[in-house]
Amino acid sequence: MRRGSWKIRIFIGLAIVAFAFIQRCSNKEENPYTGRVQNINMSSEQEIAIGVQSAPEMAAQHGGLYPDERLQSLIDFVGKKLVDNSIARETPYEYDFHLLADEQTINAFALPGGQIFITYALFSQLNEAQLAGVLGHEIGHVIGRHSAERIADSNFWQTVTMGATVGADAGGIVGSIGQNTLLKNGRGDELESDDLGVWFMINAGYDPMEMIEVMKILKAAAGPNRVPEFQSTHPDPENRIEKIKEAIAKYGG
């Protein structure tokens, strides 16, 4: 490679990386529901569209929807009660709650814009108040715009990767960092959603102490060989319990 060509590649690569950082700074905005400043590069309408488009595929990955309208009605009732009695009703998001047919995987998750899922494996172990804790936590992820934040971070890393690739064929390293840190909700996201979930439970008339019982269920499901907290994107259930107790005291539960 000629020296001049090499310099041009470095210059272009640095320019792309600089653009990524400038764009990242310009995307900062305060979440009106949590007060936290975040990097977001999409509107709430785009979040809703992504969630609605992704929902059928996510359901299919867990065996589809559980074929019991009575149980689905209970989930809809609890979810609506949480939304109607919290700041969630003030958001532009469209909350839909889905009971998945998966009887093996203990899990619940939220897509951007309000699509919320819980597997039958987890649902079957919960009473109504504990169900409210799980759904409240997932509503917290939606209001916290955690998926949108991860998408913005992913776009940032993709741009940085492109700049690094142009400049010095190092994109694989940068890209792997971005992927490894953005595939799942981080510890901060989980703790924020726990906090919001406690608040929503109290507002809807549920005993927030039942959220602690949910943590015990998750801890038992993980078993004795669960990943240590420092290796996991999720806080340890014991640490989450302490934070939940603090939230209960804060909100006067």
Q: Could you characterize the architecture of this molecule?
A:
This protein has 253 residues and is mainly alpha-helical. The chain has a domain at 42-145 and 184-251. It has helices spanning 3-26, 44-61, 69-84, 120-123, 128-143, 146-168, 171-182, 187-203, 210-222, 237-251, and strands spanning 28-30, 37-39, 96-100, 108-110, 115-119. Strands 3-5-4 form a 3-stranded mixed beta sheet, with helices on both faces. Helix 3 packs across helix 5, helix 5 crosses helix 8 (187-203) and helix 8 packs across helix 10. The model is unreliable at 11-21, 156-183 and 227-232 (pLDDT under 50).
Summarize the structure.
Helix content is 62%, strand content 8%.
State the major sheet.
3 strands, mixed
Beta-strand proportion: 5-15%
Q: Provide the helix percentage.
A: 55-70%
- What order do the helices and strands follow? HEEHHEEEHHHHHHH
How far apart the termini lie comes to 68 Å
For the residues shown, what is the average pLDDT?
Answer: 80
- The rounded Rg comes to 21 Å
Number of strands: 5
- Structural class category: mainly alpha
Spatial order of the strands forming the largest sheet:
3-5-4
Report low-confidence residues grouped into runs of 5 or more: 11-21, 156-183, 227-232
- Number of H- or I-type helical stretches: 10
**What would you call the shape?**
globular
Search tags:
253 residues, mainly alpha, two-stranded antiparallel ribbon, 5 strands, globular
Helices and strands in order:
Elements (H helix, E strand, L loop, with lengths): L2 H24 L1 E3 L6 E3 L4 H18 L7 H16 L11 E5 L7 E3 L4 E5 H4 L4 H16 L2 H23 L2 H12 L4 H17 L6 H13 L14 H15 L2
Parallel strand pairs: 3-5
Antiparallel strand pairs: 1-2, 4-5
